[in-house]
Hints:
Blueprint: H1 8-23, H2 27-48, E1 53-55, E2 65-67, H3 68-95
Amino acid sequence: xxxxxxxxxxxxxxxxxxxxxxxxxxxxxxxxxxxxxxxxxxxxxxxxxxxxxxxxxxxxxxxxxxxxxxxxxxxxxxxxxxxxxxxxxxxxxxxx
Length: 96
């Protein structure tokens, strides 16, 4: 790994996501991936607990050690942020 956290699996993840973005994703596939991600998150939180240590390799060395609870809070904020975007899209649709 490099100091920034770059690693082979991260590169594979990036290339796969870019390839999917350029070459198409079906609605069904995206919803399936989202359902899998939230099932994985739920299972992880239940089995590990909120106080369990966690590491985010792409964060700075000083900040990369955290807890599952902190990551859950970040994901709630991320979801709320994008829910606001969804509301804007809904409003645009209704206004037509």
